[in-house]
Amino acid sequence: RVCYRTDIPRQSQQQYDDCDRHVRKRRLRPGDLVFFRQEGTRRIRRKVNHVGIYMKDGLFLHASSSRGVMVSRLDNPYWRKLWLRGGRYRK
User: Fold this and answer.
1) Could you tell me the pTM of the whole model?
2) Measured between alpha carbons, how far is residue 4 from residues 32, 46, 78, 89, 90 in Å?
């Protein structure tokens, strides 16, 4: 049984800014946050507008405004294009 018990800010950009450690895709662990940038936003500005929770095997859990809570693949072309970085809070 896993229990994360971690309080995080509500806004995705603040979650990104508050992460203790940024994580590359190949180093993700279950419970890490995965951040995506707005389509058309330049990578340099790091504008985060979507976040999910990494599960395992390239899957992440996130909320969609049109479909509710869902599981998606990081290697999906849509998410791969918008990928910014993973993040980890210290426990």
Assistant:
1) 0.84
2) 10, 26, 28, 10, 10
